[in-house]
Request: fold
Amino acid sequence: MAEPSSTIRPQIGPFDLGMIVVSLVIGIGIFRTPAIVARQAGSPEIFFSAWVAGGLVSLIGAFVFAEIGSRHHFPGGFYKLISTAFHPLYSFMINWVIVLTYGAGMAGVALIGAEYINPLLPTAWHGATGIRSTAIATLVFFYVVNMLGIRSGARTQNLLSGLKIGMMLMLCAGVFMDVPHIATSAVPVPDASGSWFTAFGASLIAVFYTYGGYQQTLNFGADIKDPVRNTPRGIFIGIALILGLYLTLNYTYYHALGFEGLQASNLIAADTARALFGPWGQVFFSVAIFLSVLGFINANMLSLPRVYYALADDNILPPAFKRVNSRTQVQEFALTFLIVTTLASLWLLDTFEQIVNYVMSVDSIALASAAATLFVFRKKAGPDDPHQGFKVMGYPWLPAFFVLFLLVIAANVIITDPSSALIGWSLFLGGAPLYWVLQKVGKQ
Reply:
């Protein structure tokens, strides 16, 4: 075995990064959220306007993070950038909540994937024990894959993302098919009331969260070959694929089910697959969901240990979290810690699922803070900015619009669900005393 070190050697290219972006963003949401958005929108015009607007805002965000990633290439960059631009305490308060939810989220997503794929397995796997066993086996499998090396994890990610894109393109082919509208797994549709602006705003929140996740690519800053050129390329490859797939897939849902069917559907992608492929539609949908789950799990196993690296680099976590196998470029201790805590959370899943809902407003503040680091870095660079890589057009107006949009989203979440937001912000504030305790322990 190679000796551990604290040095990360770049091994990820632009295509690898693009596929990571695809799996960080395209999870289960696009297979469920459109029905929710349709009910909130109340009309096809508002529905499609929200998806286009959400895509444009996400594209602006991609421009912002492409420049940030091109300028600074830290391991665990989502933590390190905020720490460098503002303060380590503030960055920790944000990131410890994110690490908590993302790690537990892997367990929750693994269970959801097992619920979809297990009915296709032998009868012995159909019960609660079988579902939990599949989830555990899935998590352990990707732990082994990623222990083999960062390149092993990246190649696996390319395969999973390619399969996921292929499955989504097969669904998108429904745009060209003459599909009779079928009865859907109906749910009550609320009466459309209120202004166009209110409906559009409510729709846009759900849409924007479905586009989210690409910002976590900043955690791979030290892993990317020639990051000044390749970070923007990877982000743009990923976001371009996502925009095309999301808009086409939403039109496919509308084309296959009609807008009323879209509103009334409980499982929008399952109903669309059934309309397109008949009895095999449910099998197709289950496999598509499972592939999305696998991609999400693998992407997070690649990403989260780099956040641990950054925390250890600031003496918040013990030095063991920073050790990198010089041959495989894997943080073996950090990855093992991640899988142990993820497996443990399977037994506390209900609690962690609630936590994910609680931190929605904190997540928007985290995104806004990461985006706002661009203003700090540009100011420090001064008028003779030496940076020769990608620079976002329309500076400072486009980045300012993106940050303001995120702050409005955070405020809206607090207003619409204050009790959940209160718990989320309590977790955020609880990070302050935890920071001082961990920093003291880390320095010992």
User: Anything to note?
Assistant: Residues 67 and 91 are 20 Å apart (CA to CA). The mean pLDDT is 83. The beta strands are 4-5, 324-325. The radius of gyration is 21 Å.
